[in-house]
User: Fold this.
Amino acid sequence: MSKKILIADDEESIRNSIAYALKREHFIVETAIDGEDALVKTNIFKPDVIVLDVMMPKLDGYGVCRELNNRKGIGILLLTAKSDIIDKILGLEMGADDYLSKPFDIRELIARIKALARRMERESTPSANDAPSILGAVEVYTSSRKVLVDQQPIELTPKEFDLLALLIAHPNRVYTREELLELVWGMDYLGETRTIDIHIQRLRKKIEPHQALLQTVYGIGYKAEHLS
Assistant:
């Protein structure tokens, strides 16, 4: 089945050029002219991936990310004219899965959209086994994609869940950032290893007061470890 892509950008020429390229790749395409329109179209069109410009009127791309942060099954790719790494980090912290700086090569954009659509499809495939992985006060249920901290459910984005599930399932194993990118984002991920640091920071905040479970192994990467 063809994947559905929503393009949200206030520049008509950009919307049209992206839509044309995606339709040639047999995607089903819808467009939005600003952030508020993007939220409305998301509820109606139910896209697999949203291509979202950061600088839009009414509601910017960051605001849309915030609104959709807990919406499972939708990948968000941010388009930004700002090249500063801080702006890209902000987008990831707001819930975006990937980003691309303007001006961009349409071939790279298509490749990133395809990669993100594949990741969303993998995440939506249920597992038959829902036995929890438990480390200290954190319980991770893979099939139902549920996490309990001190027996209370917490809300995670899809990538936060996948990253935590991997680390909790293999306590004391040290993963490099590159390994985590490959295992959680997939071999076709085209982003930077800084993405891992951002997600670990967010996870630590969400599993408080047990943030020490996620340990930094300096110069290498991360591991999950129960410190008694």
